[in-house]
Specification:
Length: about 80
């Protein structure tokens, strides 16, 4: 079993902070670094990230640093959007 730290060939979380969402609710802004040197930011619903933290046994956003991006896909993250 691993501790969630990223393998060299996958995107790694380099920063996770709280930011404003377009609807006025807080979101988590996550910066990822790729092995080829590329970087990107993504915004995630705060509730989704909290569920992922809980599923990974983490207690703060700071603990995401250095972990594989896939830690954000653990736990019940699926959402249903009705239009």
């Amino acid at each position: 079993m691993t501790d969630g730290r990223a393998a060299p060939l996958e995107a790694v979380i380099v920063r996770a902070t709280i930011g404003p969402g377009h609807d006025g609710r807080a979101e988590v802004v996550v910066e990822l670094a790729y092995p080829n040197g590329g970087r990107t930011e993504l915004s995630m619903a705060q509730e989704s990230v909290l569920r992922a933290l809980d599923a990974a046994g983490l207690t703060s956003l700071d603990q995401l640093e250095g972990r594989s991006w896939s830690v954000l896909t653990t736990g019940p993250l699926s959402h249903r959007y009705d239009t």
